[in-house]
Amino acid sequence: KHPQPSDRSECLLCQSRNALPRSHTGDVRGNTLIDIGSGPTIYQLLSACEKFNEIIASDYTDRNRQELEKWLKKEPGAFDWAPVVKYVCELEGQREKWAEKEEKLRKKVKQVLKCDVRKPNPLAPVTLPLADCLLSTLCLEAACKDLGTFRAAVKNISSLLKPGGHFVTVTMLKETYYVVDQHSFSCLYLDQESVEAAVRDAGCVIEHIKGAPEPTPESISDYTDLVSL
Ligand SMILES: C[S@@+](CC[C@H](N)C(=O)[O-])C[C@H]1O[C@@H](n2cnc3c(N)ncnc32)[C@H](O)[C@@H]1O
């Protein structure tokens, strides 16, 4: 269902359009998905694994890639994602299938690669066939120190995508830092216009933009908004 305009999850672009693009209906699917800057997390792949046959995860740091591998290989000390997996399964209407989803995701993640979004081929020296979908959540604003680097990084990662493929991204707006386990990480301050311009300049057509709820008082960063495209 297309959300009502009063809903904060509305598409900020096309309230008046009649024909909904595939991304509005959640029907973004295909053979391969590349996740850029996966970090040590899998939450962003839980719904994607129902729609793609092969997933490539990637990150800049060895520690994050090792942590991800630990979960994929069920090694001792791996983070327990079960509560998150159960929550996502509940949203998808199948809470009881959470263990199956974990196994499905483990099978579908084929590689965890080194990645640097500042390089023209972010996955160099690996060259992959162009992907049907590119996903990047909360990565570019952490990886890029200035707007020029951010704009170049959007172009760099878009080069991994097939013409007509989908680029799905979630970006914190107006954030200058975030905190993980008492360590503070700096972040590039971005407004929505700059994010949209960078995505368009990389050759993408924006089909869907969604805002997110206001940050809570206990938030672990100073962001004021979040946008997914
Ligand atoms: C805030 S975390 C986001 C992780 C995950 N995608 C998520 O949604 O929680 C930012 C990630 O960007 C990665 N990163 C930092 N610099 C990078 C770069 N130059 N290229 C690729 N990834 C980078 C970090 O290692 C970290 O895992």
TrEMBL record:
GO (cellular component) term, any one: cytosol
PROSITE patterns: NNMT_PNMT_TEMT (PS01100), SAM_MT_NNMT_PNMT_TEMT (PS51681)
Keyword S-adenosyl-L-methionine: yes
CDD domains in the cross-refs: AdoMet_MTases
Keywords tagged on the record: Methyltransferase, S-adenosyl-L-methionine, Transferase
Pfam families cross-referenced by the UniProt entry: NNMT_PNMT_TEMT (PF01234)
Binding site for S-adenosyl-L-methionine: G37, S38, Y43, D59, N64, D116, V117
Transmembrane spans: none
Single Gene Ontology MF annotation: S-adenosylmethionine-dependent methyltransferase activity
GO BP terms, alphabetized: methylation
Keyword 4Fe-4S: no
NCBIfam families assigned to the protein according to its UniProt record, in alphabetical order: GntF_guanitoxin (NF041360)
Family designation: Belongs to the class I-like SAM-binding methyltransferase superfamily. NNMT/PNMT/TEMT family.
Entry protein name: Nicotinamide N-methyltransferase
Organism: Crocodylus porosus
